[in-house]
Amino acid sequence: MTSFELFNNLSAPFPIEFIEWRIGSTTGDKSKGMALCYVDARAVMERLDSACNPGGWQCNYSQGVGGSIICNIGLRMQEGDWVWKADGAGATDVEGEKGALSDAFKRAAVRWGVGRYLYDLKAPWVEIQPRGKSYFIPDHEVNKLNSIHENFVKKGREPVKAVQTLPNVDAKELYKSLQATLRSKKTEGDLKDWINQSAVKGQIAQLPPNWQDTLRTDYQESLAIAREPV
Questions:
Q1: 0.85 cut: is pTM over it?
Q2: Who's near 3: CB < 8 A, 6+ residues apart?
């Protein structure tokens, strides 16, 4: 299996039974909340097992800045070499350290493509209801949200393909140019139109892998900011 085939297997959409929704921002009267789609750490482990086989991946953790947790995920490539990607997270409001371990693991997996498509899924405002000191999304709204996910998946995406390396590319200048253009995009539509251009995809593919990861993370953060209600 080539690295591109592996990535496409890892980044495939999740079946609906693995999909969950949580509440992000809420209105002042707590009648509505922003629904954010996610999968839990066990779903990510199953994806890694199925795409890489249980012996084809591993992970470890280290301490980051300010008490954050860094998760490193390594995958064994076709040639037998291990390639590592990492990301981190801070303590969560509930089960602080345990939540940090789980979030860091999932974020590191996103760098391998696992669940990355969820960043492009709309985060609509839905009715929420109180439950003790917290709030939850009622079943009729969850059914609507699941339909949004299924319709998004049906549209599909083009598989990632190898891009021929361009000669004499100044990677540093190209990275700066792409980053500056990304920062100039302020709306969700502009961001998606830009990242989906074939020319932009080709330029990103010329960058070193760690710079590609950083640029995609910047894109995901910009997308999340653009979706926040004004």
A1: no
A2: 77, 78
Q: For residue 138, tell me if it sits in a domain.
A: no
Radius of gyration of the chain (CA): 19
Contact of 108 with 73, CB cutoff 8 Å: yes
Helices and strands (DSSP H and E) totals, the chain: 8, 8
195 lies in some domain: yes
The answer to whether the CB of 227 falls within 8 A of the CB of 123 is yes
Q: Which domain holds residue 229?
A: 163-230
pLDDT at 207: 75
C-alpha–C-alpha distance, residues 145 and 123, integer Å: 9
Write the DSSP string, 151-196. HHHHH--PPP---PPPTT--HHHHHHHHHHHHHH--SHHHHHHHHT
The mean pLDDT of 88-99, rounded to a whole number, is 73
- Give the pLDDT confidence score for residue 92 in this predicted structure: 64
Please state, in angstroms and rounded to a whole number, the distance separating the CA atoms of residues 211 and 104: 19
